[in-house]
């Protein structure tokens, strides 16, 4: 699993010395992986984005020329770039996978310290063994609002055909944070919530109790079933609260791919600092 970030970007109108194709052309300088070029192409098919190999600038990895950029599309592109720069991008079996924040950061003496989003996830989750225990819905609403902000800035997330949440390992608990957030986001955008289309084939242990990568693989493999008729041909958005090894997301994506989902995008609240499975 590779983690990327759009560290820095600059979108500037071309000067007269550089103009070659259009009087309304712009140069986009990006300090990050070339993968972000392909992400922008997918998100904005109506914009002509040409990768330039001859232009170099200090501290930028690549440059692209954008032509005939209307004011509306210019604003939409800026919003999307800002959303990318505020999140982490994780390579996975999905078409795109973003997380809003790290769950924690290294503090004094190397001891992990929760980020603000990490604190929200901890407050919103129910850690009690009591199946009737509930987390904080007020804090869960705050997480959903942050996800809504990202979705509002990303065209492909905003126009998906259906939203799902990762299935919980404990099917008996009264409050599941990913389910709560996904249902709220689906209501806010009037997008169908499709979790009735997926189901657990068997019970699985909580991934935090799996001590090795092999244990995680054995625990989650072939555990997600899909009713294909509700998934086939659809552009899907999966929502989760926290990602560690990514095994649960990968298994969910694999099952949805087999059910002929057209595209799969993932949005997660936080990513742990643990590296041993990355």
Write up this protein.
- The protein is an alpha+beta fold and 278 residues long.
- It folds into two domains: 3-85, Alpha-Beta Plaits; 89-271, 3-Layer(aba) Sandwich (Rossmann fold).
- It has eight helices and 14 strands.
- It has helices at 35-43, 71-85, 116-124, 137-153, 155-158, 177-189, 213-220, 247-258; strands at 3-4, 8-13, 26-31, 48-52, 62-67, 88-90, 96-102, 104-106, 112-114, 162-165, 198-200, 224-226, 235-243, 263-271.
- The chain has a six-stranded mixed beta sheet with strand order 1-6-7-14-13-10, with helices on both faces.
- The N and C termini lie close together (5 Å).
- InterPro entries: ComF/GntX_DNA_util-trans, PRTase-like, PRTase_dom.
- This is Phosphoribosyltransferase domain-containing protein.
Provide the fold topology.
Blueprint: E1 3-4, E2 8-13, E3 26-31, H1 35-43, E4 48-52, E5 62-67, H2 71-85, E6 88-90, E7 96-102, E8 104-106, E9 112-114, H3 116-124, H4 137-153, H5 155-158, E10 162-165, H6 177-189, E11 198-200, H7 213-220, E12 224-226, E13 235-243, H8 247-258, E14 263-271
Parallel strand pairs: 7-14, 10-13, 13-14
Antiparallel strand pairs: 1-6, 2-3, 3-5, 4-5, 6-7, 8-9, 11-12
Quick description:
The chain is of the alpha+beta class and 278 residues long.
């Amino acid at each position: 699993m590779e983690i990327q970030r759009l560290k820095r970007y600059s979108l500037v109108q071309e000067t007269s010395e550089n103009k070659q194709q259009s009087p309304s052309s712009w140069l986009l300088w990006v300090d990050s992986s070339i993968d972000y070029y392909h992400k922008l192409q997918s998100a904005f098919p109506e914009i002509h984005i040409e990768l330039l190999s001859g232009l170099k600038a200090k501290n930028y990895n690549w440059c692209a020329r954008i032509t005939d950029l209307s004011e509306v599309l210019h604003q939409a592109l800026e919003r999307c770039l800002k959303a990318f720069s505020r999140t982490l991008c994780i390579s996975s079996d999905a078409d795109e996978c973003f997380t809003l924040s790290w769950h924690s950061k290294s503090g004094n003496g190397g001891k992990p310290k929760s980020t603000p989003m990490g604190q929200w996830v901890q407050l919103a989750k129910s850690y009690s063994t009591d199946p009737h225990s509930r987390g904080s819905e007020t804090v869960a609403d705050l997480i959903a609002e942050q996800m809504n902000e990202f979705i509002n800035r990303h065209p492909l997330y905003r126009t998906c055909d259906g939203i799902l949440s990762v299935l919980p390992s404990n099917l008996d608990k009264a409050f599941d944070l990913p389910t709560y957030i996904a249902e709220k986001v689906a209501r806010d955008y009037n997008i169908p919530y499709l979790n009735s289309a997926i189901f657990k084939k068997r019970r699985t242990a909580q991934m935090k109790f799996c001590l090795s990568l092999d244990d995680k693989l054995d625990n989650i493999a072939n555990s997600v079933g899909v009713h294909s008729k509700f998934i086939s041909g659809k552009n899907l958005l999966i929502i989760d609260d926290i990602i560690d090894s990514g095994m649960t997301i990968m298994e969910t994506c694999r099952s949805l791919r087999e059910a002929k989902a057209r595209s799969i995008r993932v949005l997660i609240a936080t990513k742990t600092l643990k590296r041993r499975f990355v």
